Amino acid sequence: MASTNSEFEFCGVNHLALVCKDMARTVEFYRDTLGMPLLKTLDLPGGRGQHFFFDIGNGDSLAFFWFPNAPEAVPGISAPEALPTRGNFMSAHGSMNHIAINVRADKFDEYYQRLVDKGVEVTPILNHDNSETQSSAEMNDDVYVRSVYFFDPDGVCLEFAAWTKVFDESDIAHDPVRADGTKAEGMITGRTPVPAE
């Protein structure tokens, strides 16, 4: 019989976030070749890149960042320099950016406080929404996931994440970016660019 965790009621992996060189090629492989449905697409504010989530079953996701100026993949560059809100969160192509562990939304605040009480250095709670900054200090009806980030002793970035809404078709709203920074217009949205006159 497996032992139980008396500290936190984990619900599996919320999402594993990796970094890709070409989001369109990533969509072609994971969605079109492997059949993973897209759950959520984001163009990051300020031209900082993209973030796409793929359904891997059981409520779990595989997510990819595309950063326009990310370094090429180099063995040993495997994690961000800093936590979100505290500095450079970018990592190299093919790296593992962070591991998000799924927790129940009704336990999120309790678990955040439990981390603090245990002396874990954590970020503020990030209520990810569809606003211009893509995060709110307070909960609102537009929040789709709540997050707190922290490092393990070896510098692996971890996240406790709690989904707060069910995704629908409106959450797939961004065409992916290719390695050269151009959008693959219409690949996901079906919208084609209007030719310049």
Automatic annotation (TrEMBL):
InterPro entries linked: Glyas_Bleomycin-R_OHBP_Dase, Glyas_Fos-R_dOase_dom, GlyoxalaseI/FosfomycinResist, VOC_core
Domain of life of the organism encoding this protein: Bacteria
Cleavable signal peptide: none
Domain VOC: 12-163
UniProt cross-references to PANTHER family, sorted A to Z: GLYOXALASE FAMILY PROTEIN, METALLOTHIOL TRANSFERASE FOSB
Protein name: Glyoxalase
Gene source species: Sphingopyxis witflariensis
